[in-house]
């Protein structure tokens, strides 16, 4: 079927002459076949043929009255004067000199039956137009020589190709047609399969195929379809099909207008409501139940209301229908809150609620400002990405407050069933609506702020992919008619403001990530944490525990102690928990003091309001938490400043790692013993990290002479007669990535040279076999982690210098950054007094 000029249909086609319907290219039509000639075509050609070619037939539509059909050949349809100039073919095969148009189609299904009389049913998909040039034979079925009129490639080329705006009038026509088709789709219910199919086709097919496809799908008479079929020129085809499409749109508009609820319907619905929901809060609040629904949902609910009224309550279906209708009644179809957005107030509110996070707050304000200027803003969906406890959820809550909207959090962590998002079909026992519809029912308005928490932790299972269901929810082009399986009526989600949060982008499904604007929320510095604790966490916790600042005081150095010795995290969640623990302990003391009032409580012997006094007498207020009290309440410190202690042996170096929970310091330890030159790696390492270790050893062996590295017996090859063991502590945690390269080299250089790595240095960077240092990610989080751990010098790749700008000035001032291009520079910076100085230059 393929030739030099593209895909070709066979030049000789058997003709199916039918008066049942009109097959247009791109559409699929079912034909019932019972005339002898057509029956022969099926039995002799379609059922006997074995090749794809033999399933292609020509379908010639016929406008003649089927009542008078005989075994004579029906009249052929003429492309110029369809009705008048029809000619009976059997008169003479050769007299057919004018154009007869049909559609070549591929028979995709043949079904035979003997009842009530023998016949076949064919399912045929139209491929392209053809014209009959001559008839070759008449029996047992008609065979004709044909000429192909349409190109077939258009169905295989992607949307967007083909007719474009540059094509003059044709381009304009196609543009108009496309827009009208989109308008029509907007008025239809997406849950109807044919509508969804039209939407898919509109997105995927090139524009020149649209007149045929749309004319076959919308309501058109056979005569109109024939007009489209006859229009061989593309321009004419658009001109013929456009009025049909416009007519359909106008008709729908009229229908929607007349479907507005009449006073009669209003009365009927109110009566039904009174009988079904006598004490419903809906009735108490709204006198007119009709106003609760939008017209389309009311028309779906009404028959069910009527059915429920007649149903005995003992019927199992009663409870199902009742639950469904309860949901229909409670959903906020038409109810929304009014946005009260004032950017200046929003700025103050965000600043009051959250300390630091300047970049994030700036972007959120920009977003809100655009919303204020253009209320019908579609997208983007903001996605806050950062370690736990850095305030992502709480910023989402503040956005809802600034807009004066309801807030609802949907936890997506671990969700692995798409019906969690989209609900179960009502045919299932125990079916329920999905979380989106449930959330709307909970908040009771159709324009809340929905926080999709932990989108990176969505799962996948045999029950479908919830991320795919979320795509429809988040796509502003589609979510105006979101259909929950349980509800089975489209609900408009376009007013809902979606915000997502995640710990890392790597595990967010790419299609979902593509629909969101990612805003990074990095961890906090020690100073920021102290400020957050004193401005927000302590007052909040005091309030939650019923305490006042007159009863409990936590000085700044105690907070610093909690941050440094009891928590090690990027966010402030553990810090908040520890403050909570202090509040609980103090609350007990305060409550005890209230119950046993002592006459001498106000004149204690010791002027210091000390925690230890508690056991002796009710404490004097305020209770100040000092180091001793802290130790009593929280126990001994969990984290010590272990860095300098652990770097006291050769073969230990300190690296920096990035995890979704923020930056971390990471020790690398190495030891050597007599052996055969084997390398053992432990600490749950990924493949990339193992490769880094091999790279490091190879580089050191290659450069052993330059750096005077020796093996156990003092030989020149460090690995000769030596086994090496490299260990990455915190063995239970899986580690991977190339950024430990420089740390492994430093650790091994220390082992082979017997020299100590500086006790205050941490490093990160990928290495190459030639000894160059390549940039890595997560610099800000890593630097903050090093700062938390009390490191003073940080060795970084040269090309990461730009990332230092993001680091807060006070942290930068505390640290000495050494940026390096090659391993020689790394070693010189990592050891006191340098290592040695061979010259290696990087062109990277
Ligand atoms: N910059 C800040 N200013 C004031 N409070 C903050 C700040 N950052 C975090 N918090 C407080 O820390 C607590 C934890 O924050 P939140 O629950 O928003 O964290 P999260 O980033 O959403 O964490 P997760 O990823 O685990 O959901 C909240 O009580 C919040 O008020």
UniProtKB/TrEMBL annotation:
Q: Where is the Lon proteolytic domain?
A: 647-833
> Which stretches make up the Lon N-terminal domain?
13-249
Endoplasmic reticulum as UniProt keyword:
no
Give the chief site where it resides.
Answer: other
Q: List the active-site residues.
A: 739, 782
EC numbers, comma separated: 3.4.21.-
Q: Name any one GO molecular function.
A: ATP binding
Q: What does this protein do?
A: ATP-dependent serine protease that mediates the selective degradation of misfolded and unassembled polypeptides in the peroxisomal matrix. Necessary for type 2 peroxisome targeting signal (PTS2)-containing protein processing and facilitates peroxisome matrix protein import.
| HAMAP family documented for this protein | lonp2_euk
Q: What is this protein called?
A: Lon protease homolog 2, peroxisomal
Q: Which gene holds the coding sequence for this protein?
A: LONP2
